[in-house]
Amino acid sequence: MDQSERFILGVPNPGSSLFESTIELLKRIGITVSVNGRSFEGGIEGMKMFDKVFFMRPQDIPLAISKGIIDCGICGWDCFVERALENKLAKIVELNYSKKSQKPVRIVVFSKLFLEVKNAGNIAITTEYPNITKKFFPDVPAENIDFSHGTTEAKVVAGMFDYGVCVTESGKSLVDNGLNIVKELLVSPTVLIAKVATPEIEGFGQMLSGALYAKKFQLITMNADKKAKEQIIPILPSFKSPTVNSLENGEFSISTVVEISALANLLLKLKLLGATDIFGTDINYVIK
Question: Whole-prediction pTM value?
Fold first, then answer.
């Protein structure tokens, strides 16, 4: 690929909630990102289609793509909705991971009590998402909607505001502070977005999706004699078919991919059926 064809990737900046998870995801497909002190530019190795990365606040990545500063970027879908750019850029792939889990985060309205959400002029709202909030509360005056730079829950707990709007992964922080979710405004997966959906960027998105998918599985390999093999093969899960190789001692080596949630029960069955030398290997990616 010529230098002129190389892309710039936007990555959530160090310290943001998605930074560590995103860097780890890139590593799973062989891409290493280097941070150069406090510079907003970083190096990227392992994939020739990228020239460099820009570290940015996730909220700024959609705007940077729309202005052509970066070619594609990884951040939360909420960042695009807040910027009203969700229909103007190409969503390449949804990547269901967040800071601590493999689930999308949620944008919610919360309050101190189990209040019915009221769209009235006399309520006060503190929010991390003013534009999304204004769409949901069209009758609330703009001066009653206050942008929150942080500690959004504390302002509602203290009685400064009737409602708050924030991002939550599990809702635990809200519960711990005696707050109640009264409305879910948006489910926000992490996404790869681009200004133009080129074949290279689409392929990159499939690689990222495959790396996330692979976390659900392990590759297991075992040895078995002929009698054990005939009983083992019918119970083995596999994407297509288990791999079976003959060994010099007359036994067989059998490999297959197993969903981790079913692994313990399967291992016990394999042992009882006579499988030996069973070992498991983590899978970095699955690209079909």
Answer: 0.84
Range(s) within the chain of domains with CATH label 3.30.70.120: 217-282
Amino acid letter, residue 29: I
Distance of CA 200 to the CA centre of its chain: 20
Segment 49-78, tens digit of pLDDT? 999 999 999 999 999 999 999 999 999 999
AA letter at 288: K
Partners of residue 183 on adjacent β-strands:
109
* Average pLDDT score, the chain: 91
CA distance 149 to 173: 17
Q: 3-class DSSP state for residue 93?
A: strand
| Cα 145 from Cα 161, distance rounded (Å) | 9
Reading the block at residue 5, the tokens are 């064809």
Query: Domain 3-102+189-214: which topology?
Result: D-Maltodextrin-Binding Protein; domain 2 (3.40.190)
Tokens of 203: 């392929």
For the domain with range 217-282, which CATH number is right: 3.20.20.140, 3.40.50.510, 3.10.20.90, 3.30.70.120? 3.30.70.120
Q: What is the pLDDT of residues 251-281, one digit of tens each?
A: 999 999 999 999 999 999 999 999 999 999 9
Q: How far apart are CA 7 and CA 133, in angstroms?
A: 34
Identify the band that residue 247 occupies on the pLDDT scale cut at 50, 70 and 90.
very high
pLDDT digits (tens, 9 = 90+) for 3-32: 457 999 999 999 888 999 999 999 999 999
Quick count: other Cβ atoms within 10 Å of Cβ 243? 13
